[in-house]
Amino acid sequence: MAPRRPRGAGAFPKPVESPAPNKPDPNALYAALDLGTNSCRMLIAQPKGSQFHVIDSFSKSVQLGHGLERSGRLSRASMARTVAALRVCQQKIRRHEVVRMRLVATEACRRAKNSRDFIRQIKRETGLEMEIIQPEEEARLAVISCAPLVSTRTEQLLVVDIGGGSTELVWIDLSSVPNRDRPRAIMRLHSGFHPPESPFPAAKVVDWISVPLGVATLRDQFNDVQDDAARYALMSWFFEENLSEFAPYKDAQSREGFQIIGTSGTVTTVAASHLGLRRYDRTKVDGLRMSSDQIEAVIGKYLEMGRPGGGAIRALARIGSR
User: Is the model more confident about 35 or about 303?
Assistant: First the structure.
């Protein structure tokens, strides 16, 4: 006797649909775009408590500064690559209906003789209004972006932004600020490195420097050196020479209570290498803590592979080890 077929067998199952996520209010979204010497990066995010929830992102190596060391101008090819990347950013901004944004360009556009013409070309071809910011503003933005990562035990803080064409370093004294208020004290620097008098305990910017050297400019300046180890050694020496008058570099610093926070793609690449990631994962890299010894170990592995690490990274590791 054939088994009875259950009632309803063979009928199409009723689909179970998960509710679609609510579309964020465009008025609550912010877009931040950073056009550097080597890369074009953008985040679209929504505030979530004291943090941000990333809605969309874009990152592309456009090599805007390629050949800039030699000619002093942005090349047609590099500008074409950059405009193509910015069109993608513009499409994302339009798709999410973002109305609040800040779009900045840094060292390559600061140095290039034809940068103003390029900014006008961007506006004409993409509709995006780019702002060329000065080194102090670039350093200040790097500092306040690091506020959530500042340890309440930190007495002396070094914020580092290694870009494609420049490196910004800011040394901040937090010793007079109560422990739990130290991250908030960093945020108060939004008005500048020398803010007006305030009833709140203030973070003191002891020294800051912008060095016109980054991963792209170091590569271009030493591309005629064939030996990897020799090229790396020269990069390191040259970068350290440019730091000779920076206060925390020339004066010995204790590791106790001293924290370095890096904000750049170079630093996050070192962190990803330390974790052994095959694909970049922001959730694992953001906020990762590494010792100077661990940074040195990653650099050693780079050299073993025959590819030079950045001279900037080596110098910063030495600052932290003093």
Answer: 35
How many CA atoms does the CB half-sphere of 119 hold within 13 Å?
18
Distance CA(192)–CA(182), nearest Å, equals 17
Residues 119 and 173 in one domain: no
Burial label, 227 (beta-carbon count in 10 A; 0-12, 13-18, 19+): exposed
DSSP bridge partners of 161:
168
CB 36 within 8 A of CB 108: yes
pLDDT digits (tens, 9 = 90+) for 68-86: 988 999 999 999 999 999 9
- Local structure of residue 225 (DSSP, 8 states): -
Domain carrying residue 240: 136-320
Query: Which pLDDT band, with edges at 50, 70 and 90, does 50 fall under?
Result: low
Q: What pLDDT was estimated at residue 20?
A: 44
**Residue 153 belongs to domain with CATH number:** 3.30.420.150
Q: Evaluate whether 118 touches 79 at the Cβ level (below 8 Å).
A: yes
